[in-house]
Amino acid sequence: MNRNEVSLRRVPNEVRVPPKQSHKYKRLLWIASLSLAMTITVLFFYLKGRNEGEVSASLSEDEEMVEIPAGSFIMGSEEGEFDEVPLHKVELDSFYMDRYEITYLQYQRFILYNPHWQKGNYRFDEADDNYLKDWNGTEFSGGKENHPVVHVSWYAAAAYCKWAEKSLPTESQWEYAARGGYEGMKYVWGNSPETYQIRAGTGIMPVGSYSINGFGLNDMAGNVWEWTADGYGLYMEEEEKNPKPLLNNHQKVIRGGSWKSDMNNLRVSIRRTERPNACREDIGFRCVKRAMSNEQ
Fold first, then answer.
1. Is residue 128 one of the residues assigned to a domain?
2. 245, 230 contact by CB (below 8 A)
3. How confident is the model at residue 83 (pLDDT cuts 50, 70, 90)?
């Protein structure tokens, strides 16, 4: 048997691809692999972009903020309770404040991207057992999308504001904003106890259900109390300019009254306190941020 015969016998038993077909196969395989890699890359950045877009959506709510002009006002009331005096002048730079209280839908976005603040993940010193009491995991009851979120502690509210690159308002910012540019008013809307302005006893209403004040803010009285950045303390007579939050980790100040409040607790200067980890059915919050002109 010569060499050529041996070669002819072996060919049928081997999988041989002609050189030109082999190169074509490798090229097709390379193109398929590249296409798959590109598809995976595009899908990754698409999903990443969606997530980042959702985060941005929760932070880009400036259209729902109102610019509060710089100015000064007399804080407190001589007709109020012992901790509403002495009256003192406060001067504030301009700032932005949320037109409405933070809603269930807004807060849901926050906890979806901050698992620590989902039910069961927080520490008891940050929030008591009533935290998000009316939620099922990360879901809330239907129809509450535009209601002010409640059952949130001071710590949770502060965490939300920080995440949104904002902060809780100081007491002075809150009262100045609530007065709407008017001096000496007893209530957000004026001096007469017009109960229809706050719809007492009706339960929590969607944000925007109450009248707009002089600065264009809604719901500054009634509906739900609002956390402020300040710890509780007594007033001083000295004039203040852009006062920083008072430190008191045992009692934080809430403002504005709620749907359960009597007329005394709806006064613009009233001050009430609560433990910072307390989560009540009638306390919510809104945020503020510095005006760009005040940023260094």
1. yes
2. yes
3. very high
Which residues does residue 150 pair with via DSSP β-bridges, in sequence order? none
Residue 270 included in any domain:
yes
Helix (H) or strand (E) run with residue 253 in it:
strand 252-255
Q: What is the pLDDT of residues 202-226, one digit of tens each?
A: 789 999 998 789 999 999 999 999 9
For residues 291, 293, 295, 296, the Cα torsion angle rounded to the nearest 10 degrees is 180
Give the residue, 36 or 93, on which the prediction is more confident: 93
Q: Which residue has the tokens 């009540």?
A: 280
Q: 214: domain range?
A: 68-294
Residues 210 and 105 in one domain: yes
Q: Please indicate, yes or no, whether residues 27 and 147 belong to a single structural domain of this protein.
A: no
- 3-state secondary structure at position 132: coil
How many structural domains comprise the chain? 2
Determine the Cα–Cα distance for residues 32 and 26; give it in Å rounded to an integer.
10
pLDDT, tens digit, 9 for 90 and up, residues 134-175: 999 999 988 999 999 999 999 999 999 999 999 999 999 999
What's the chain's Rg over C-alpha atoms? 30
* Distance of alpha carbon 225 from alpha carbon 222, whole angstroms: 7
Query: Is 7 part of a structural domain of the chain?
Result: yes
Give the total residue count for the chain.
296
Report H helices in 139-218. 154-163, 171-179
Q: Do 23 and 90 belong to one domain?
A: no
| Long-range contact pairs involving 182-189 (C-beta distance under 8 Å, separation at least 24) | 182/214, 183/73, 183/74, 184/74, 185/268, 186/77, 186/79, 186/267, 186/268, 187/221, 187/266, 187/267, 187/268, 188/213, 188/220, 188/221, 188/266, 188/268, 189/213, 189/221
The reply to whether 102 and 131 lie within a common domain is yes
| Residue 288 counted as domain residue | yes
